[in-house]
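Design job #97: recover the sequence.
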């Protein structure tokens, strides 16, 4: 099949799905999901700025090299939008599950499988790279740098999976307390930041992974019930959020950047802070103020088909976009460091960005074609998975993804060059639930 025919087939399939979408579907939800992930991809490709100095590759970070670019993170740090969309979608699906007398296992197993399955081949590929790279004598520092960079996206999935796992409780809280459930979480985030920044209580700030992201998730519930249907109310939330963020950054202890910057003592994202929650409030308000106009735009079948097409492979794009980046960087290094001798942030560097982005896309496309199949939920797991299997599997998957973000799968010690205990956890967790390459073993557990 020719490439042109393949593209037509992909487009025609997406168009068929777009035409089948029920009229009551909120297409803006799908648009924001695709937009938020693509913004993250562009942001990652932009801030990662490796260069060659004295013959060695340095892992440059644009935000640290050019401080003014830290303001750009107010637009590119759009993970709050993804959690907002998640809240809307989880509200709709969990409400439907309750109406149909469905079970928690039946509802959450599919979500866990759909989100975790695409991660497994990514882990396998980079485990093999770390192992063979180490055994073939590649400098361990280079192996670790490449693996750490390529696997940055997985941290988000561990947090999102835990947020989705407690939907029955957050949904019940919303039904009972409404917006008070959001303000309670907001208050929790304030208390945690005060305890961290003023009282210097160690490690308590990690609780804000729950308070901040659950708060934004609750705003998704509010959206689904029409709380933001009035454009003026949504706009007021947007203005209030951006004003609060300006005060927190201008007069408070929070840095400008909404992601971590090398050398900064405080990160707004790892773990999240009150400043990031303020950004999430602002993005929620402004995004939902634009909803009526955006939904009219999405009535155009070509635009809607594009959204459907991107959403059909969105997790694959997210998980593999930094692998594509690494492949291009390795190719440039093997070609004598072509393009890497340019100083990040210089005029020439900025002018070269469109060329580099085209190369990243070219490297990403075959990865999408090869691995998008894992994004489609398998029917191998039934909805009657025992709760102990489901929760144990969830904890192992999330522990593996979280440990990857903290430690990296590449090890500076040992024969293999791989932290096998980290790699093993997501595979074991998936097997216990009953999916993945060893899912048959888990299904025998009953």
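Job complete. Output follows.
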């Amino acid at each position: 099949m020719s490439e042109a025919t393949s593209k037509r087939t992909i487009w025609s399939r997406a168009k068929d799905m777009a035409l089948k979408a029920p009229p009551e579907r909120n297409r803006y939800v799908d648009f924001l999901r695709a937009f938020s992930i693509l913004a993250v991809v562009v942001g990652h490709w932009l801030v990662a700025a490796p260069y060659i100095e004295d013959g060695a590759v340095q892992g440059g970070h644009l935000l640290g090299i050019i401080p003014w670019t830290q303001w750009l993170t107010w637009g590119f740090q759009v993970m709050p939008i993804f959690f907002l969309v998640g809240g809307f979608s989880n509200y709709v699906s969990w409400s439907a599950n309750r109406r149909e007398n469905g079970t928690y296992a039946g509802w959450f197993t599919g979500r866990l499988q759909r989100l975790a399955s695409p991660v497994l081949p990514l882990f396998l590929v980079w485990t093999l790279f770390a192992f063979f790279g180490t055994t073939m004598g590649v400098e361990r520092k280079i192996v670790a740098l490449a693996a750490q960079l390529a696997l940055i996206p997985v941290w988000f999935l561990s947090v999102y999976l835990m947020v989705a796992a407690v939907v029955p409780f957050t949904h019940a809280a919303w039904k009972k307390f409404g917006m008070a459930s959001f303000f309670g979480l907001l208050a929790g985030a304030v208390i945690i930041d005060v305890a961290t920044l003023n009282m210097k209580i160690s490690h308590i700030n990690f609780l804000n992974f729950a308070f901040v992201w659950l708060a934004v998730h609750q705003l998704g519930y509010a959206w689904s019930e029409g709380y933001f249907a009035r454009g003026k109310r949504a706009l007021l939330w947007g203005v209030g959020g951006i004003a609060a963020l300006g005060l927190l950054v201008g007069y408070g202890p929070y840095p400008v950047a909404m992601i971590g910057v090398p050398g900064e003592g405080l990160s707004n994202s790892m773990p999240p802070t009150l400043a990031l929650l303020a950004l999430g409030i602002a993005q929620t308000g402004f995004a939902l103020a634009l909803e009526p106009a955006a939904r009219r735009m999405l009535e155009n079948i070509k635009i809607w088909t594009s959204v459907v097409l991107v959403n059909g492979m969105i997790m694959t794009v997210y998980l593999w976009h930094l692998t594509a980046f690494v492949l291009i960087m390795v190719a440039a290094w093997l070609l004598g460091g072509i393009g890497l001798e340019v100083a990040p942030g210089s005029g020439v560097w900025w002018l070269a960005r469109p060329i580099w982005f085209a190369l990243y896309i070219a490297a990403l496309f075959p990865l999408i074609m090869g691995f998008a199949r894992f994004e489609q939920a398998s029917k191998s797991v039934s909805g009657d998975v025992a709760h102990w299997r489901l929760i144990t599997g969830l904890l192992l998957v999330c522990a593996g993804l979280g440990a990857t973000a903290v430690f990296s799968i590449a090890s500076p010690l040992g024969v293999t060059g791989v932290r096998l205990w980290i790699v093993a956890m997501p595979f074991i967790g998936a097997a216990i639930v009953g999916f993945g390459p060893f899912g048959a073993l888990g299904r025998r557990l009953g």
